């Protein structure tokens, strides 16, 4: 696994702890996804999969931020 | 100017946790409850780190006051890009009574000791909701303050601050050194990723005690009682508009 990307299994696992459907749900899906693609050798395919991992990573960060922002906005700002 | 920015970060019960009041009404349950950095403190850290990335300042120092666990919050700040941390050790009874006055005294003393150019704090903590620490710190230091900041720009030895106030925005220009408090829209804090958390373990956290800074932590406040907010009365569902009008007349609202 290429350590220079932000999408190693431990990093994604760490990011997925607070997934709305549960950290366990995320962990199981993550494990299944990595196991399914274990044998992939083609560099092009690998790049695609890393891209997908990066996408998931960005989506999670956006999700967590929005959730917190909306909670703070609701609590502290009268609309 | 030293180019050093102090950022205060507070460890609070995580915003998403349902708060429970202790049976004896002396406070809220904190044992075994998930804690994290106060969201407004995250915004403060982000602003300081951004200034450093733009090479406007040289060093970001994260400060937290509390027992051993306060170091977790400092580590998060380090993972977000702060250079080093200062853990002001306050525990037990002293920690229970730790409030904005005590923290401002600490921040003021550290600002002098570290020759800080700016202090950036969150506008308030989501547990105490005091919204006092920034203001008190500025007063103790006799520094100008830019509170509820939704935009900050450093202009030489001055700071331009756009403040969120009732009814709109106010733009002020103040001298440095100064105290700023961060409002929600100041920036979008970065997530502390695992690699950054690992790297942050190498950064230094210095431990000090309030006594080392020559400070008196006595509180002039006493918490008498903590209660849950009144329960919201259950709503009533009506079938038709006529029912709604009738109900409104009933309760004297029409």
From TrEMBL, chain A:
GO annotation, biological process: negative regulation of oxidative phosphorylation; respiratory electron transport chain
Domain of life: Eukaryota
InterPro entries in UniProt: Complex1_LYR_dom (IPR008011), Complex1_LYR_ETFRF1_LYRM5 (IPR045296), ETFRF1 (IPR052000)
Coiled-coil stretches: none
Pfam family, one: Complex1_LYR
Domain Complex 1 LYR protein span(s) in chain numbering: 11-55
GO cellular component terms listed in the entry, alphabetical order: mitochondrion
Family: Belongs to the complex I LYR family.
Family annotation (PANTHER family): ELECTRON TRANSFER FLAVOPROTEIN REGULATORY FACTOR 1 (PTHR21024:SF0), GROWTH HORMONE-INDUCIBLE SOLUBLE PROTEIN-RELATED (PTHR21024)
Protein name in UniProt: LYR motif-containing protein 5B
Species whose genome carries this gene: Liparis tanakae (Tanaka's snailfish)
Automatic annotation (TrEMBL), chain B:
Transmembrane feature ranges: none
SMART domains named in the record: ETF
One BP annotation, GO: amino acid catabolic process
Annotated InterPro entries: ET-Flavoprotein_bsu_CS, ETF_a/b_N, ETF_b, ETF_beta_N, Rossmann-like_a/b/a_fold
Pfam families named in the record: ETF
Domain Electron transfer flavoprotein alpha/beta-subunit N-terminal: 25-217
Gene Ontology annotations for the cellular component aspect, listed alphabetically: electron transfer flavoprotein complex; mitochondrial matrix
GO terms, molecular function: electron transfer activity
Compartments it resides in: Mitochondrion matrix
This protein's record includes keyword Mitochondrion: yes
UniProt KW Transport keyword: yes
Lineage top rank: taxon: Eukaryota
Keywords, sorted A to Z: Electron transport, Mitochondrion, Transport
Family membership noted in the UniProt record: Belongs to the ETF beta-subunit/FixA family.
Function field: The electron transfer flavoprotein serves as a specific electron acceptor for several dehydrogenases, including five acyl-CoA dehydrogenases, glutaryl-CoA and sarcosine dehydrogenase. It transfers the electrons to the main mitochondrial respiratory chain via ETF-ubiquinone oxidoreductase (ETF dehydrogenase). Heterodimeric electron transfer flavoprotein that accepts electrons from several mitochondrial dehydrogenases, including acyl-CoA dehydrogenases, glutaryl-CoA and sarcosine dehydrogenase. It transfers the electrons to the main mitochondrial respiratory chain via ETF-ubiquinone oxidoreductase. Required for normal mitochondrial fatty acid oxidation and normal amino acid metabolism. ETFB binds an AMP molecule that probably has a purely structural role.
Assembly notes: Heterodimer composed of ETFA and ETFB. Identified in a complex that contains ETFA, ETFB and ETFRF1. Interacts with ACADM.
UniProt cross-references to PANTHER family, sorted A to Z: ELECTRON TRANSFER FLAVOPROTEIN BETA-SUBUNIT, ELECTRON TRANSFER FLAVOPROTEIN SUBUNIT BETA
Name used for this protein in its record: Electron transfer flavoprotein subunit beta
Annotated source species: Liparis tanakae (Tanaka's snailfish)
